[in-house]
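sorry for the late reply, my laptop died twice this morning and i had to redo everyting from scratch. anyway the thing you sent over, i finally got around to it. pasting the sequence first so we're on the same page, its 582 residues, then the predicted structure underneath. double check i copied it right bc i was rushing
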Amino acid sequence: MKKNLSKIAYLLCAALFACVFFAGCIKTTPPKLATPEVIVGQDGTAVWNEIDGVLYYVYVIDDGEEIPTLDCFVTLSEGQTIKVKALSGNADYLDSDFSATQTYVKHDVDPNHTHTDLNSDGICDYGGESVVSELSFYAVNDLHGKFMDTSTQSGLDEFTTYLKDLYADTEREEILLSSGDMWQGTVESSSNKGQLMTEWMNDVGFASMTLGNHEFDWGSDILTPNSKLAEFPFLAINVTYQGKAVDYCKSSTIVEKGGVKIGIIGAIGDCLSSISGEFSDGLSFATDDALTALVKNEADRLRNEDNCDFIVYSIHDGGEDFSSSGVNSVKNSDMAYYDTELSDGYVDLVFEAHTHRRYILKDEYGVYHMQASSENRYISRANVSFNIITKEYSVEPQLIASGTYAKDSIGDDPIVDELFDKYFPDNNPYDVIGYNRSTKNSEAIVSKVAELYYQKGLEVWGKKYNIVLGGGYLNARNPYNIYSGNVTYADLYSVLPFDNEIVLGKISGAKLISQFFNSKVGYTYVSGIEQSSIRNNETYYIIVDTYTAFYKWNNITVVERYDSGVYARDLLADFIKGGGWA
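ok and here's the structure:
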C-alpha cells in the first residue's frame, strides 16, 4: 500500500512538472485588432471608426495596392470600392481583418436613414447633414420681481421681446430656466405673491424654476397655488416638510431639444435660516453629503432610466468670493458650497444663484458654473454644441449684460403692460404719495422704520404695556436709497419689500441686552431705556416684526399683532404722506 501511494505521488509530481515545462514553451496568440466599420457617404467620403491600439490603417481601392494612412477617411469617385484594415505595429495585437467592401453609389438619400458619425466630425457619414445640435441655455437668477422699467432698473418689456426673437432663430434651440428668487422684491410681483411673475414666465416659456429662499417668504400656502398656475415645474430635490416630500416642487424635469434629451435637477442651498421662522417651522433642506447623494441618484436615474444625454444642475446657492465676467478656473476647495464630485460624470453644466455675484467658473472636472448677478442686470447663456451620435459636446459660456437685451432699440412686448393692467386695474403704485427733500440712504431708512415701530407700539399698546424698544433686523434693498423728489409707493416697496408684520413681543432682560444692545447681527432699534437699568430676569415689552420675533435665538414671545397686511413700508408711506421728509 505504501509503495502504491509513493508511486502515485511520483506520477503527480511528474505530471505537474510537465505542465509547467510545456506551459513555458507554448506561446499565447495575441488578439486581433477590431475590424474597421466603413460607411460611404453621399458625397463619396468613405469613413471608418477609430480602432483602439492601432498604429495606422491601410485601405484598398478597386483591388489596387494597399495605401497606408493615419486618417479615418478617404474620398472616392462614383463606382469605386474600398476596404480597410487596422495595423497594430506591436506584438500585443495582430492586424485586423479587412472590412467588408463598400461601393460608392450615388442615389437619393433615404430621409429615414440612421445617422452615423464614425469619424466624429459632426457630419452624418451617410447623408452628409450635421448631427450636432446647437443648444442655448439661458438662466435667470435672483430677478426679485424687477418687472417694470424705472429710473434705477431695466424692466422685462424689452427682455421679453429679446427672448421671443431668439426663439425665432431656427439654427439654435433655446432652453430658458430660473435658479430662484423670482417673485419677491417689487410691488408688481410681491403684492400678488408672485402670480404676475409666474404668468410672465408662462408667456416667455420657462422650462423650470428652482425654488429660492424668497419663494418661501409667504409660506407653502402660496407655493402650492402658484405651482398650479405655472406651466413649468418648480424644482427643489432637497425640500421636505415634517420629513415628507412637498407637493409644490419636483426633483427634476426633462426637456427635449434638437434630438437631445436634457435633464434639469433643481436644489435650494443651505439658506433655511434666511426664511422667517413663522414659515420655516417643520421645513427642511437637505445639505452637504445628503444633498450630494440626492443629486447623484437623480442624475443616475435620468441618464440610465430616462436616457437623458445632458444634465443641468440649477441650484439656488453660489460662491461669495467670485466676481468676474471672464472664465476663472477654480480648485474644488474654492467651491465649498458645491460638491465638485457631482461634476465627475453626474452633471454637465451648473447654474447658480443666491449670492448675487457675477461669474463663470470652470471646476477641476471642466464643468462650468455660472451666476449672473441679480435683479435683471445680467443673464447667463451657455451655448452647447452636442453631437447626437457620439454624445460629445462643447460648452461656450457667456454673461450677457442688460444693455444687450434691454436697450431702447428693442421693442416692448405688450405682455408686460397687459399683466400690469390686469393686476393693477385701479390703484397705480407709481402714483406720487409725497415728497422727499433729500436722498435718504439705507441707514436713514431703517433708522426711521425703527422709530416708526416704536411710535406705533406706544400708540397702540402703550397704555397697557411698558414698551421699551422698537426695531429689529431691518434691511433696505436695491436701490438702497429713497431719492430726493417725488416718492411713490413702488419706491418704498423696492427698498422695503419684506412682508413682515408688526408685533408686540416680550423678552427677558438678558436676551434684550445680548440680542439688541449687544447685537452681533446688526439690529437697528430705538430705545426708551438705558442698558444699565435692564435686569436679566425681568420681562420687557418691545415692538418688532415677525422676522425678528420668530428668530429662535431671540426668544421673543409674540403677545399681540398689529393690523394684518401692514408692514414697515406702510408706516413709512404714511410718514411721507404726512410731509415727514418734505
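The mean pLDDT is 92.
thats about all i looked at so far, will dig more tmrw
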